[in-house]
Amino acid sequence: MADSIKTASPKFYRSDAPAEVEDDDETKADRSTDLSREAKLDAPAQGDFRPSPVDDASSKKFLGDLTLFDSSVLQNAAEKFEIPTLDFDLPVKGDSSAGQAEVSNSSSTHFLKEIPKTSGAKVTQDETGAVISTERTDGTSLRLEVGPGGEQKFVESTDDKPDNKSWIKDATGTWTSDSNPSERRQSMRVEANGNTTFTSIDGVPHVITGMGVAFVGDTAKNLHFDDQGRIDKVVYPNGKTRAFGYADNQDQPSKVSSLEPGSTNWHHFTKSDKNLWHHTDATGTELSMPWRGTVNIGHRGTYATQAEADKTGSWTATRADGRSESVKFLADGTEIGTDASGKTTSAYQGETAVIGVKAFCRLTTVKSAA
C-alpha cells in the first residue's frame, strides 16, 4: 500500500456556527485567505481522520470544530458557509498490526484496513470487515473488484506483471480466467488469514498460503491454518493428527499435540525453556523425561525435529503427505530427504522439486527444515 493516498477534494464545514449568522464581505474574504494559507491537516492512527486546529487565531474563530463527513453533505455545507475546498495527502498510519487508509470517491468515503499476518501475508479489509485482497511473500497478490452492477472480479498480480490475470464470476458462481487457455474455478475466496481457497472445476480443493505455497487435493483438505496463516493442524493419511500452538506472533510452535489413529488420548509436548520440551498427557502428568531440541513446522507442512545432542545435522521429518524422512541441508541450500535405508527419496532446490515429490504443493525458497 502506498505511503499516502490522494483524496478526492474533501470539503469541510463549521459545525458550531449558527446558520442565521452572516459575515460581512471583508470578514469572508479574510477567512478565505486564511484558510487557503494556513489550514494544516493531520490523519491520526486508526482511521479517525479529523483536521487538527488551524494555527491562525482568526481562522479558529470561524472554523470551530471541523469534522469530515460524506462529501454530498459537505458540499452543501461548504456552499452555505462559503468555505473553500482543500486538497491534501492523508498519510497511512496505524499500529504494528493494522494500518488504515482512507479512499474517497465522489459520493462516499471508504476506509480500508491493511493487516499484516505472521505468515508474511498482508490482508486488506473494507469497512464491513470483508477481505478484499491479499499480498503474498512471494510477490503475488489477489484482489477482489466489484463493479457498479455488483459484478465480481478477482485480479491476480505479480511483482513484474501487475494485473496479469483476471477471474470473472458468472451467474452459476463459476470463476473463469481471461488467460489463454482459460481456466475455471469454483468457491474462490480470500480468507481472513491471507490464504486463497478454491475448488477446481473437477472438484479438487486448492489452498494457496500467504507465502505462495499451493496445496492440492487431500493435502489441501488435511492442512488447517490459524487466523495468522500458520499451520495449526495436520491430519495425515493414516489418521494421525498433529496440532500446533503458538506464542504471540511467533512463527514456530511452542506446543505440539499428537493423537494416534483410533485413540482419544492426546500427548502434549510443551516448550518451557529454550529448546526444552515436556511430554505430558491431558491431565498434565509427565510421561517421559524432558527432551531438548528444535521443533519446526515448515511452510510446506513438514513437521521436523532435531535433538540438541545430534551432531549429524539431520532432521527427523514427516511430510504433509505422511512420508517419513531424514532431512539434511547442503551448503547451497539444497534439501535432501532419505528413507530409513538411506535411499534418497526427495530433493528440493529453491523452488524446484528435483526428485521424488508428488504434486501436492508448489515450492518456495527453503529457509528451514520446511
Q: Which key features would you list for this structure?
A:
mainly beta, 13-stranded antiparallel β-sheet, 370 residues, 3 domains
Give the helices and strands, then pairings:
Layout: E1 4-6, H1 25-38, H2 57-63, H3 71-81, E2 89-91, E3 93-95, E4 98-104, E5 109-116, E6 122-125, E7 131-135, E8 141-146, E9 152-157, E10 165-169, E11 174-177, E12 184-190, E13 196-200, E14 205-208, E15 214-216, H4 218-222, E16 223-225, E17 231-235, E18 241-245, E19 255-259, E20 267-273, E21 276-280, E22 291-297, E23 303-307, E24 315-318, E25 324-329, E26 335-338, E27 344-349, E28 352-355, E29 361-362
Antiparallel strand pairs: 1-2, 3-4, 4-5, 5-6, 6-7, 7-8, 8-9, 9-10, 10-11, 11-12, 12-13, 13-14, 14-15, 15-29, 16-17, 17-18, 18-19, 19-20, 20-21, 21-22, 22-23, 23-24, 24-25, 25-26, 26-27, 27-28
Give a verbal description of the structure.
There is one protein chain. The protein is mostly beta strands. The protein folds into three domains: 4-87, no CATH class; 117-188, no CATH class; 213-362, no CATH class. The protein is 10% helix and 38% strand. It contains four helices and 29 strands. It has helices at residues 25-38, 57-63, 71-81, 218-222; strands spanning 4-6, 89-91, 93-95, 98-104, 109-116, 122-125, 131-135, 141-146, 152-157, 165-169, 174-177, 184-190, 196-200, 205-208, 214-216, 223-225, 231-235, 241-245, 255-259, 267-273, 276-280, 291-297, 303-307, 315-318, 324-329, 335-338, 344-349, 352-355, 361-362. The protein has a 14-stranded antiparallel sheet. A hairpin with a 4-residue loop joins strand 13 and strand 14. The two termini are 29 Å apart.
